[in-house]
Amino acid sequence: MANPAPDMREWGLVPDRELERMVIVSPHLDDAVLGCGRLLARHPGATVVTVYAGRPDEYPTPMTRWDTLAGFDPGDEVLEARREEDAKALAEVGAVPRWLDFVEHQYLERPDWVGPDATNTALEQELRTLDPTAVFLPMGLANPDHVATHDAGMLVRERFTGPAWFCYEDSGYKHIPGLLAWRVAKLFRAAVWPTPAVPSIDAQDTRKRAAIGQYTSQLLALEADWHIGEKLEAPEQVWRLAEPPDGWERLIDDV
Known about the structure:
The protein is an alpha/beta fold.
């Protein structure tokens, strides 16, 4: 007797029970709202864990290009201001911030960049404390901190199998030609079978826009580098990371 056909009706859906204790892992102090603001607005009480929210021992002189675009002046306490913006933004969507103290790459010499080997243990401890039902990682595109956050999260996923795991598309970076396809292909080859998912979201967009509006400094730089205002209409696509259906794993050999 032939195997019964799979029930395709549930594919792509995300049960609300999986989103009861939702954690978004954010590289920087704005990425979670930019990439998942509608999702956060629909599920108040979620937690956002920002990996690179730490203050450097000293800010570079001259100032970094990004901080200059963001309107900061020499002597400004940039990370304090950005944490204040983040707290206000997350309050708009009913989310709770948790800030790790790792320093983002723009403040460090390249040999000192903080990679996944240095961050994954602290991230795992934070996630286990929060006991999430679902974890959302960035796809990890282009920016070294985004890539490192994704890689750290995937290391944690191997050890922490309780929650459902997803990736969200990095705002701005996902429009770089080919990069999103590159990441999806890498995940596919790693047998985590990235599949577009459809969690419930706030379709009105009002609260996401209000949250983004709190990132006063970052909007200046995002507009200068990405024309972000014209791209905020883009859908928020998240991808479930899970084992392939039985018998389908051989498709990996065709990639």
